[in-house]
Structures are given as structure tokens and as C-alpha cells.
Write a structure and sequence with these properties.
By secondary structure, this protein is mainly alpha-helical.
């Protein structure tokens, strides 16, 4: 982050991504199955990535449920 000011100084974004999973677990007591936890993680990851790429979350979820998901571009160096 010393050379590129667009890089965040801390990792709060990663902590925010995990917070909703812990909140869900706290409210419900646990996940009913491992598969349910995996599904929640997949949807939350999709939303988080879309938000970081500055996409409209409702549009992303709409295209996801209609069978035309947005796929992030590959990383370039």
C-alpha cells in the first residue's frame, strides 16, 4: 500500500466478509448441514466479489438465478 494508495491499509474487508457467517451461526445456533454452510459461503462470496467489482448486487443475483451468472475476469499482472 506504500506505492498504491488504492490498496487498503488494513484487512477489514476480509473481516466483514466473515462477520455475516458468524452472525448467522450465532443466531441459529449452528448450520443444519455442512452443505448449507457451503451454500451460504458461496452466495456471500459471490455478493462480496460483485460488490468489490462495483456491480449492482440485485442485478448480480437476478442473473445468477436466471442461469447467466456474472463471472469475474481473471487477474492480470
Amino acid at each position: 500500500f506504500c506505492r498504491d494508495l488504492a490498496v487498503p491499509f488494513d484487512n477489514n474487508g476480509a473481516e466483514r466478509d466473515l462477520r455475516m457467517v458468524k452472525l448467522h451461526q450465532k443466531i441459529s445456533g449452528s448450520f443444519r448441514s455442512g452443505r448449507g454452510a457451503e451454500r451460504l459461503a458461496a452466495v456471500r462470496s459471490y455478493i462480496s466479489t460483485g460488490r468489490k467489482q462495483q456491480h449492482n448486487i440485485l442485478d448480480l443475483l437476478t442473473t445468477l438465478t436466471t442461469g447467466h451468472p456474472w463471472i469475474p475476469p481473471p487477474l492480470t499482472t
